[in-house]
Amino acid sequence: FQPPFPPYDPTDKSGFSYETVLKRWPVILTAIVDQLHRENHDLHSTLGSLEEGTRTEDNARIEAKIVEGKGIIEKVGKLKYEMARDYVMEPIPMDGEAHVDLYNSELEKLAQDSKNTWFKAPWLYAECYLYRLLRSYFVQTTHWKDYDPFHAQKLDVFTKSGPSIYGIATIMHELESEKEALEADPSKLKVLFQEMIQMCLWGNATDLSLLTHISLAEIERLQSVGKEMQAARKEFILRDDQEKAWDHLMTVKDGRVDFVLDNAGFELFTDLVFADFLVTYTPLFTSLSSPKLIPWFVSDVTPPDFSETIKYLSDPSLFLSKPIQGDSSGQSSSTTEEGGRQGHLQKLVDRLRRYVEEEVFLLSVPSGTGLGGGLTGTTSSTSAAAAVASTTAPAHSSLAEFWTAHVPYWDMETHDRQLWEFLRKSDLVVFKGDLNYRKLTGDVSWPSWTPFEEALGPLAGSFPLLSLRTNKADVAVGLDKDVLEKVEEKDGKWRVNGK
Ligand code: F6P
Ligand code: MG
């Protein structure tokens, strides 16, 4: 599909893509180099602690790993140098992983227009290419094949989300006792649906103060003040189709919801809670999630991140240093309350785990590749994901691989017919985050009042979809002209500042 507008690229120095290539990517590359230096330093220490004359096999393996680590550091350093100087982007090496030809043939096309350099290539292509190229550095080694250079960062953010995680678990616990009343009255459920959507949309930034104790009385209060509350939030929501989404859900029977996941950690936790809400309280009964099969855009969920999230939630002492503090009043809670909140989380996680085991929740990863549990960070992880992999619909790897191609979603049918057919059977596909939105709209400079359906190109009408996105890139469509005028007036950075 050829859209009538050009893609965003860094030749426009006022766009976010220019700032990204100039400033943000170098920082990301530097963080990878630092991380590898730390790993190599630790390996050196391990070597030092091995008794001389013994463990020669381990010695040799660690030494070889250090050498390979240095090799990757050099490559990343060279990449950073070349990027800053607008060098030609090299073809992705034949590393045995997906999409080498796809990326390289696009690169050849760009070369014909002299757009195959870092400051000239379309932003969406170049950013996807960057993460795929980085992957090739690791996968071509023996000892770093499955290494995720962003794992430590992802884990660090997750460990800081304790208070919000406990808060949400308590809400879900309180909902349970109201299940019958909720099911009997769809208007009450709708209020909760809207809260869940907000939670899922804002991820870390969600305003949980409104949600700390949900009783039936509280829900009724929310119903009566709901309109005002939604109106207050509307200031930050430029396009809001919650009503349509709810009306659509109410027409579904025994359905399936698909999540095209975005970030790991707290955001993944909110996605799981939203999925839990949908399968528990609405006619949707299965939830299928698509992670990324390779480390991607720093924080995206990989299959090991998925398993690790469930594992860590089951044993919060592993990651929540001060698990019970941090209610919105800032006071620490009593011991009974602590026990209660831990119990709530345990119950929630038991249910999530059971949904995974019973395949109510499925992770869309190719079977037989071992990828479900193969990719690790500094710590190894068990794999709930791998456990469900073999039962996940068709065993064709493209079902998961498409998400790490650079291809706009309007070409999904031609590039990955099997995935497209598969999603056509979904009752709702929820696309999380900014990158998915960029791919849905092709990351081209549509006028912002272009209808969303038009910006979807040939994907429109393929399946019901909901995009939950906070703005972190220039592209934005589906806006009323008066909304656009107001936001332009108020906040010159609205397209990219995530607010
Ligand atoms: O901040 C910009 C950015 O890195 C974009 O390049 C990318 O689209 C986005 O963030 C990733 O955000 P998300 O995790 O919401 O997809
Ligand atoms: Mg992301």
Automatic annotation (TrEMBL):
GO biological process: DNA damage response
Biased composition (Low complexity): 325-337
Cofactor(s), by name: Mn(2+); Ni(2+)
Keywords from the named record: Hydrolase, Manganese, Metal-binding
Assigned EC number: 3.1.3.-
GO molecular function: metal ion binding; phosphatase activity
Notes concerning its domains: Subfamily III proteins have a conserved RTxK motif about 40-50 residues from the C-terminus; the threonine may be replaced by serine or cysteine.
Location of the region described as Disordered in the Swiss-Prot/TrEMBL record: 324-345
Catalytic activity: beta-D-fructose 6-phosphate = dihydroxyacetone + D-glyceraldehyde 3-phosphate; beta-D-fructose 1-phosphate + H2O = D-fructose + phosphate
Protein name per its UniProtKB record: Sugar phosphate phosphatase
Function: Metal-dependent phosphatase that shows phosphatase activity against several substrates, including fructose-1-phosphate and fructose-6-phosphate. Its preference for fructose-1-phosphate, a strong glycating agent that causes DNA damage rather than a canonical yeast metabolite, suggests a damage-control function in hexose phosphate metabolism.
Pfam families according to UniProt: ARMT1-like_dom
Family designation: Belongs to the damage-control phosphatase family. Sugar phosphate phosphatase III subfamily.
Entry GO terms, CC: nucleus
Annotated Damage-control phosphatase ARMT1-like metal-binding domain residues: 21-482
